[in-house]
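Reading is simple: the token line describes the chain's fold. The lines below illustrate.

. . .
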Amino acid sequence: MGTKTADETGAETAGTTTDDEKTDVTGTDAADEVTEEAPHSEEDADELAAGDEAVVADGSVGVGQGAGAVVSAVLGFVSLTGSWIGTLAGARQTLVGQLQTSASSGTTVAKQLEVIYGDAWQATALWAGLFALAALVTGVVVLARPAFGNPARPQAAWIKSVSWAGVALGVVGLLLAVLKYTDALLGLPSAG
């Protein structure tokens, strides 16, 4: 809806325009062209709104995947270094073993070692194994998540790296927990 003269409109319909005619076109013509490309139906507007929501959702999915990767790595680290709950479970089992051995005065030294220290060692190993398993599962879920999401949007490299670290720490932690639980690693000393 620009300001054109009759000569200009005649020249445009003829297919020829001069430089003067091109400079006479105002910004309202450009605005009209943009509005012609805008959606005219509610269905088109809904599709655009859904696209905007998808962009927001993709951003939050990346944040969730990043958080899951960090959680996986931290759980794997905790499985290797020990946790408060594992230490507490080991101390509790030691106390239970002491109570059992004090109640029965005829127990052997080997039985006392098993009841007081062996069960506590296994309780600590069990909790370490649970943390390692949680790290492993969380890391695998984060790595597998893009297969069930938007395949066109790749996962950030740091998320993959941290997730793989969590998986690796989980595998090592699980292996060590099994070895500790079965007394293959640092088993109880012999009583004799």
